Amino acid sequence: MFASKRLGKELAKIQTSLPPGITLVSAPDLSEWHMDMQVLDPNPIYLNQTFRLRFRFTNNYPIETPEVIFVTSTDPPRPIPMHPHIYSNGIICLDLLGSAGWSPVQNVESVCMSIQSMLTGNTKNERPVGDEEVVKSRQGPRNMRFNYDDLTV
User: Would you please indicate which residues are annotated as catalytic (active-site) residues?
Assistant: First the structure.
């Protein structure tokens, strides 16, 4: 009940205003939303590209973090961005998306802005160490244990 009330309020706000470079693509219900994102700074790694995020919410949102990953699309084209903290299956290593870094004051807009900022500041056109193993394991982001101490990115 609390999740649907909170998500309803967030959706109403998102439909009227979002920061530049972030767009609501679809929110057919209160369990899964898709957002498109662009890096607006002239970062050559992401120049003229748009990326798609998938948000999945549980009934415990916002107490529990949403599951947020990048997803691909062919029409229009939406690749998984290259980044040392983004696996090729779309899983994002970001403390904000883990239970220790999440706070109920966060919302879809603030998560999008954090990920957009993470991309903007990136200078490395590479995947995380162990990318192939993570993809082969088929683990979801909720089942992964991340090391958030990498300050090199």
Answer: 93
